[in-house]
Amino acid sequence: MPTYTFRCKKCGEEYTVFTSYSKIDEVRCPKCNSKEKERVYRKISFSVQGGSSSSSCGGSCGGCSGCS
Ligand SMILES: [Zn+2]
């Protein structure tokens, strides 16, 4: 099942639930039990390491491929 992250509009709690898309409306805040929420989209950040980029540090670290 997919994971959805929401932020409660009432108390600001952020919570993640495993549910099907059709049941999103029924998801409640674990803290205040409110259904008022907005979807939080997390960006998947994957680090670029190992020389695929020559400008990862801007020439300041002295250790990456851009500094050699
Ligand atoms: Zn809440």
Automatic annotation (TrEMBL):
<dbReference type="Pfam" id="PF09723">
    <property type="entry name" value="Zn_ribbon_8"/>
</dbReference>
<dbReference type="GO" id="GO:0044183">
    <property type="term" value="F:protein folding chaperone"/>
</dbReference>
<dbReference type="InterPro" id="IPR013429">
    <property type="entry name" value="Regulatory_FmdB_Zinc_ribbon"/>
</dbReference>
<feature type="domain" description="Putative regulatory protein FmdB zinc ribbon">
    <location>
        <begin position="1"/>
        <end position="42"/>
    </location>
</feature>
<protein>
    <recommendedName>
        <fullName>Putative regulatory protein FmdB zinc ribbon domain-containing protein</fullName>
    </recommendedName>
</protein>
